[in-house]
Amino acid sequence: MAILVVCACKTVYSQTKRICPNCGKPKKDRGVRYQVVVREGGRGTRKHTRYADTLAEAKEADQQIRNQLGSNINPAAARKGITVGEIFRRYIALAQHPNAVEHKRSWKKDEQRWRDYLAAAFDNRRVDAISRQDVLDFLTALEKRQSRVGKPLAPATRRHALHLLQRLYNWAKRQKIYTGYNPTAQVTVTVVNDVGRVLKQDEVQAFLTALASLLAEGRPLVDRMSALGLQFALLTGRRLGEFCTLRRDKVNWEDEEATFWDEKNNTWLTVPVSSEALAIIQQAELIGLSDAPLVFHRENGKGIYNQMEYRWEKLRDTIGLAGFRIHDFRHTFATWTKRKVGLLASMGLTGHTTITNARRYDHTEADVMRGALAAVAERAGLKAKNGTGD
To answer: Alpha-carbon dihedral of residues 98, 101, 106, 112, nearest 10 degrees?
Structure first.
């Protein structure tokens, strides 16, 4: 414990000494104060200093500094004003509490986003010392970062990080913890979600033929599982992360349903699956490990998320589907089901919660829409004759 005595003559000395080595006054003299000094590490590291009028106050200040350092909070910044990191820790503590208004299921993702993207830039920064330019510079730096698989961070990832920072400022204002300038206001990250492709009729056969080569006997288990997983993606419209984490105990054979973890809405989603999709699950169980919890897995029982992406990227270029993503099977599924059962019923299968999001996955071709227009005209008795309106 680094608590020193400060004499009225300004001399600072150890508590082990009974009198001031300079003027000879006892340390119990009324003019004596206490100096608290805590270093971040060993000798030569940055030190944090506080002053107190009593020994009890000095001990309390010493413990406070140590607690702040242990929580990665800069004590000097915390004294001047509350830090973003402190606001986050208060917010996340309430978000985890089931009876708090702030409670929500996505708090684990908030923790991950804070740890991976925001903490290094804002943890020790005072909320009143961050400018709008600081936020813009942070987003620019995120654009240059790469994900764990070596790809540039997706715009949606950068937007999630920004939204969390905005949420912290807004929450602090509602709690009256901070009422000053909000640098995140009028800052946004544009995410284009309307890009997506749909398999055409002549592409389906090329796709299935290519998968047959991966599924052939004698191929490694991960190849065969990848082929089954890709077929399953087309037949169910599930996201890559959802069907790669599908567990065997989440398949209801009797009711022909499967329960997936909806990674966008952070909830379990139970949807009906076709007999063809169930047959794929059954085939995966036949060729896989008997004790593996996941439906689609590698030789060691672990998932095939990255392995499947790698194999598909190598395969697609050879069959004329360059640039076609695994996520585009979801676009294909949404478009095909919408044509058959309508938008709302299709949303029940894909798990979309808003019509706006669901429409981004609808890529109905012009000839299909023109056929629908012709059907209306025919039903009304106004169908054009000989290609004219006469």
So the answer is: -100
Q: Are residues 89 and 170 in the same domain?
A: yes
Distance set, CA 143 to CA 4, 16, 87, 96, 149 (Å): 49, 56, 25, 30, 15
Q: pLDDT at position 260, please?
A: 94
Could you tell me if 207 and 272 lie in one domain?
Answer: yes
Of the three residues 70, 102, 125, the one that is the final residue of a domain is: 70
Which amino acid is residue 190, in one-letter code?
A: T
Residue-number span of the structural domain to which 130 is assigned: 84-174
Residue at which a domain ends, from 307, 324, 341: 324
Say how many CA atoms lie within 13 Å of 91 toward its Cβ.
Answer: 27
Distance CA 63, CA 85 (A): 19
The pTM score is 0.59
**What is the DSSP code (8-state) at residue 219?**
S
Q: What are 323-353's pLDDT values in tens digits?
A: 899 999 999 998 888 888 888 888 888 888 7
The reply to whether 307 and 211 lie within a common domain is yes
Q: DSSP letter for 248, please.
A: G
Does 341 map to a domain? no
**Of 140, 169, 165, which Cα lies nearest the Cα of 155?**
140
Please provide the average confidence, as pLDDT, over all residues in the chain: 85
- Shared domain check, 106 and 62: no
* Residue closest to 243 by CA, chosen among 221, 225, 224, 216: 225
Find the helix or strand (DSSP H, E) in which 55 lies. helix 55-70
Q: How far is CA 2 from the centre of its chain?
A: 42
Q: How many domains does the chain have?
A: 3
